[in-house]
Write a structure and sequence with these properties.
Layout (H helix, E strand, L loop, with lengths): L5 E14 L6 E6 L2 E4 L4 E14 L3 E10 L5 E11 L3 E13 L3 E9 L2 E12 L8
Length: 134
Amino acid sequence: MNNMIAKSNFILTCEQAFLTANTNNLNLIGIFTNINAEQFPLVYRRFDLIVNFDIDTPGMHGLKTVMTNQEGNDVVQSEVGINVSSNTFQVITHFENLTFAKPGKYELKVYIDSQHIGSRFLTVNPMISHKAVA
């Protein structure tokens, strides 16, 4: 039985995230929770998911991310192995060309091994066109 304890400190979505060489300082550009779309389905070019968490057992773990729509259906999921080197650790994952079929609230659920450690919500909004009235 796995007695691992993991707890998220923060889960963010942004346009771009990277670590500074030599210092490992986290750089975040364009943090967001809303996406505006002119039409659906929307293919969103790229975003990054940043997960910062505390864990009591460093070593190899599985990081699983599941995105669900507001009906609770899976939109996409990914799973990668991560080598956790300290009790406070952060991971940057990239999502490219993700399709949002319709407007609504989407949930990015994050798991370490099989333990749910937190979620980030994204709201996809339809843009209202302002057509001139003759």
